[in-house]
Amino acid sequence: MSRYWSDIVSTLRPYVAGEQPRIPGLVKLNTNENPYGPSPKALEAIGQAADDRLRLYPDPAATELREAIAARFGLTAEEVFVGNGSDEVLAHTFQALLKHDLPLLYPDVTYSFYPTYSLLYGIEAVEIPVDDKFQIRLADYDRPCGAIIIPNPNAPTGIGLPLAGIEALLAAHPDAVVVVDEAYVDFGGESAVPLISAHPNLLVIQTLSKSRSFAGLRVGFALGHRDLIEALVRVKDSFNSYPLDCLAQLAATAAIKDDAWFDACRGKIIATRESLVRELQALDFEVLPSQANFVFARHQSQPGAALQAALRERHVLVRQFAKPRISDFLRISIGTDEECTRLISALKEILPA
Ligand code: PMP
User: Fold this and answer.
1) Ligand 1 within 6 A of 292 CB?
2) Is residue 249 domain-shared with residue 277, that is, in the same domain?
3) Domain boundary among 209, 234, 258
């Protein structure tokens, strides 16, 4: 704490990202990365781009990338906004669209960046409790609000909300901005993108970090009515008009077009998830139904923090959150089959017979 800090910074509880140790041989299942790597076409694009073009500023509007994303989703480029990871897209969204006289609503078990952004931008937020099965209960959102943000599937639970639920929220709140954070939608969830044309208050945010394996390149995007997108562009241009560098723009454009790689990788991840769920259940874990590239699982008798520490000693990294309702859960990213086998072997060593 310094006397030079603003009041907001003094009270800010910054988001703490999952650790990124560079230890060879580590089974790293703590930050929901994709074990299969980006499309080879994206890597090729980076190789070709590392030339004299780096001397020049990148296209501030990322036109080619926005056109490629628009084509994939049947939208126009004016309905697409891109940013430096969906975290940055979310930050601009909070600043541009979620501050109103009425409160912002989001679930109480969710992505912990939302409270941080709310505090940073002076947004009054109300956390709506999920039910005893960690499901979002739509009836509880039936209250006056200026905006709503729903992660779908939710994180860290992995539980998805059917499209009809999002549609009901939009119908009930035509005057509120409804943001659907679809960071994990490509692993079995239902995307709200088809609702955009009928709902000018809907903003869908996705990332290339998970299903396209771009976590290190930082590319995320928002889709919605051009008025919402224009608000994001205004904030972006006032913050940093070049959020995406040349390499990220070129690589992401190639990746978005590579459906074959995308489908193969997410198919493998979904198949591995299903077998991991069965193996965890056989070891007495309760596993929440996941539509994401991770599972959220709690052992019937062993505390989460102790299990995480014991796994770490065996060079297996998983995430545990020191928050009241969820502290006994482990959030386990879906790795390769081999990595998941190593996780299960380590658990068998740790758990009492
Ligand atoms: N939304 C949710 C729900 C997430 O879990 C994450 C990943 N931590 C993000 C957004 C941000 O992802 P990225 O910035 O890598 O696009």
Assistant:
1) no
2) no
3) 258
Helix (H) or strand (E) holding 70: helix 63-73
Out of 258, 284, 313, a domain closes at 258
For residue 84, the ligand 1 atom closest to its alpha carbon is 14
**Positions in the chain short of pLDDT 70:** none
- Beta bridge pairs of residue 333: 294
Segments forming the whole domain that contains residue 214: 52-258
Token digits for 85? 């990871």
Give the atom of ligand 1 at the shortest distance from the alpha carbon of 214.
Answer: 15
Distance 86 CA to ligand 1 centre (A): 6
Please work out whether the CB of residue 208 comes within 6 Å of at least one atom of ligand 1. Answer: no
pLDDT digits (tens, 9 = 90+) for 97-146: 999 999 999 999 999 999 999 999 999 999 999 999 999 999 999 999 99
Q: What is the pLDDT of residue 230?
A: 98
Q: In what order do the strands lie in the sheet with 329-333?
A: 285-287, 294-299, 329-333
* CB of residue 103 inside a 6 A radius of ligand 1: no
**Which residues 6+ apart lie within 8 Å of 7 measured at CB?**
none
Summarised one tens digit per residue, pLDDT across range 234-249 is: 999 999 998 899 999 9
**Nearest CA, atom 7, ligand 1:** 183
Atom of ligand 1 nearest to the CA of 209: 15
Same domain, 113 and 242: yes
Cβ of residue 294 lying under 6 Å from some atom of ligand 1: no
- pLDDT on residue 51: 79
Which residues is 85 bridged to in the sheet? none
Residue of the CA atom closest to atom 1 of ligand 1: 183
Task: Tell me the CA distances in angstroms from 120 to 77, 149, 238, 280, 316, one per residue in order.
Answer: 30, 16, 17, 39, 34
- Evaluate whether residue 43 is within a structural domain: no
Distance 183 CA to ligand 1 centre (A): 6
